[in-house]
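Hi there,

I know you've been waiting on this one. I reran it after we fixed the sequence typo, so this is the corrected version. Both the input and the resulting structure follow.
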Amino acid sequence: MDLITSLHSFLRVSETGSFSAVAAERGVTQPAISRQVSALEEYLGARLVQRSTQAVTLTDEGRNLLAPARDLVEAAEGLRNLADQWLRKPVGLVRLAVPAPLGVHVAGHISTLLAQYEELSIELIMRDRPGNLVEEGFDLEVRLGEIEDASLICRRVGSTTRHIVASPEYIDRNLPILHPLDLALHHCIVHPRYGREDVWHFTDLCDAGERGAAEHAVTVRGRFSADNPAAIQTAVLKGHGVACLSHLVVQEDIEAGRLRRLLPQFEFRRQPLYITYAPGRRLAYRTRAVIDFLVRVFQSDPLMKLGSPPGSPPANHVC
């Protein structure tokens, strides 16, 4: 039995004096309303109304129930209105898991979101390996690569772009790297996250024929690996080898001359970028506000923008 619905029907019957009138209001049959009131009587163990062919009147127990019934129904309505407010206004905490480079990027824009919604709070967890959203209590998780968990709702919002980089010191003291196959002769710093990270896949941007651009897969190796991009960035800046890192991590180092981008005519395989969340009947407005924010942040970057064409060599590069 739905207690609140039964109480509400009982109150309307007491006000109208008719099961049929309440049934017409609700768009249901008269027996349906009668069953709701009967179920309430059985629940309370007391007769609440006197039924006759002319009218419906309340018993003493029914009259005594009116005030507390109204209080309960009004309280339930208040809860429903409050829940509706939560759904329509970003209020409360959103727990968000994001891969490290993207997490730093998001943190750089988060003040805009928090300034827009003063009652919204964000807990940002940065991790490169996805977990269980429901068990860990996350509202959202940004994931790279294809999603294997069919139980999640996934929204694609862009793609990743990674650059092959090394320090000027490393480049000067080692063999030149002119083709992806040359990487097999170098110390490469591997970032173990998704499957075979020691196999790097490239597309030749200067060799696009009728059958598409040429693809190259290279098995790389080295004496150092790390599961954190900041550690890899530090190692490559110190000249320990060649790394493959998100443009978000290395762009400033490239512009400042601390790192050099290698193989610009070859695009490293891009990974799809998804926002994932557990299925539910209604998505809280605070969660939807964060999703919209993430989409804006990712789509504002040309190298992550959804639907952006494959990369191209720098303007000063001759194919």
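Quick highlight: The mean pLDDT is 88.

Best,
R. S.
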